[in-house]
Amino acid sequence: MIVRTVNPDDIYKIMELEYENFDNPYPPNLINFLYESHRDTFLVVEKDEVVIGFAVGIIQKKEGHILAIAIREDYKKRGVGTFLMKRLLKVYEKKGVNRLKLEVRVSNVAALAMYKNLGFKITNKLKNYYENGEDGFLLRKDII
User: Fold this and answer.
1) Does domain 2-142 have CATH number 3.40.630.30?
2) Which tens digits make up the pLDDT trace of 109-132?
3) Rounded alpha-carbon distances, angstroms, from residue 12 to 18, 28, 38, 142, 144
4) Distance between CA 54 and CA 128 in Å, rounded?
5) 103 is catalytic
6) pLDDT in tens, 47-57
7) Helix orientation angle between 80-94 and 109-117, rounded to the nearest 10 degrees
8) If residue 88 lies in a helix (H) or strand (E), which one and from where to where?
9) Strand 63-71 vs strand 99-105: parallel, antiparallel, or unpaired?
10) CA distance linking residue 9 with residue 7, whole number of Å
11) Would you list the domain boundaries of the chain?
12) Phi, then psi, of 125 in degrees rounded to 5
């Protein structure tokens, strides 16, 4: 597997992964904006030259905000998400980011376990955070 920054040819595959992984996927115009504006923190993971996942985040005032991570269904629970997240954390560290945050559904047990193993801690419960009324957790991690 290799991790690299996103390129224009990846956008359609990223949209497929968005629709495969999320009930309310980011619209194409937002994916394009993130590609144009935050390319250095927009990573894809490939296996045999096929995109099998992506992670995207932004930086605001030395704080990184991880917006989305999605892995192809047949590669889930195989360490791909952790592999990708570790690479994104290194990108943030090189950019001088000293704190990260992300949101996750309270029901997403697998993602919560991955984030906790990567050193993220739940700092807040977000009532009715998602479109369907589900609560979320705000997680943070300090990078030293």
Assistant:
1) yes
2) 999 999 999 999 999 999 999 999
3) 10, 9, 17, 33, 36
4) 26
5) yes
6) 999 999 999 99
7) 50
8) helix 80-94
9) parallel
10) 6
11) 2-142
12) -100, 130
Quote the pLDDT of residue 23.
86
Length of the chain in terms of residues written: 144
Active-site position among 115, 130, 131, 134: 115
Band of pLDDT at residue 61, cut at 50, 70 and 90:
confident
Amino acid identity for residue 45 in this structure? V
Catalytic hit among 103, 130, 131, 134: 103
Rg (CA), the chain: 14
Q: Which residues, other chains included, contact 84 with Cβ-Cβ below 8 Å and sequence gap of 6+?
A: 3, 43, 45, 53, 54, 55, 69, 71
Tell me the two tokens of residue 142: 């300090």
Whether 73 is catalytic is: no
Residues 75-114: pLDDT tens digits? 998 999 999 999 999 999 999 999 999 999 999 999 999 9
Q: Is 88 left (phi over 0), alpha (psi -120 to 50) or beta?
A: alpha
